[in-house]
Amino acid sequence: KKLSKAIDDITEERRKREKMEAEKRGSDDELRAVKQSLNQLGNKLKEEAKVRIQGEDSLKVEKEKKQTLEVRCGTLVNMMETHCVTISTQEEELKNKDSQICSLSQRNNALQSQLTHEKESNKTVTMDLKDSLKSLNEMRIKFEALTEKMKI
To answer: How large is the C-alpha radius of gyration of the chain?
Structure first.
């Protein structure tokens, strides 16, 4: 009976140990599953962090591009404003030049008219001078003829 009880105790002890080992294996399996799940979550969080960092980096790059474009646009706007001012100034200068040309054209026409009038006047004076010279020549001839007559 003692032997039978000892065998029963040993068997019971073995069952308890096997049960504990099975529970331990189950706990180890659960622990491994939890660790694996945690690793997967950690990897997923790392990937999400990488994506977020990449997104932030690309957002930063896009902001820098935007700022660069804003500066370029500002420069272009300033250039256009300067160009518009230059064009306005040149238009004013052209108007002034047109006015000067118009004034000079009127003065030229007046001088042309005056020149034409003076040419006609000079023709008249020239004809009068020719007539006077003819008369003078005729008088000189008469004077010379009279002088010859007086010498004789």
So the answer is: 63
Cα(9)–Cα(20) distance, integer angstroms: 16
CA torsion sign for 23, 24, 29, 34 is: positive
Token pair recorded at residue 1: 């009976």
Spatial separation of the C-alpha atoms in residues 6 and 14, rounded to whole Å? 12
Checking 101-109 for CB contacts under 8 A at 24+ apart, the result is none
Token duo for residue 77:
């706007």
Alpha carbon 22 to chain centroid, angstroms: 79
pLDDT digits (tens, 9 = 90+) for 27-84: 666 767 778 888 898 888 889 888 888 888 888 999 999 999 999 999 999 999 999 9
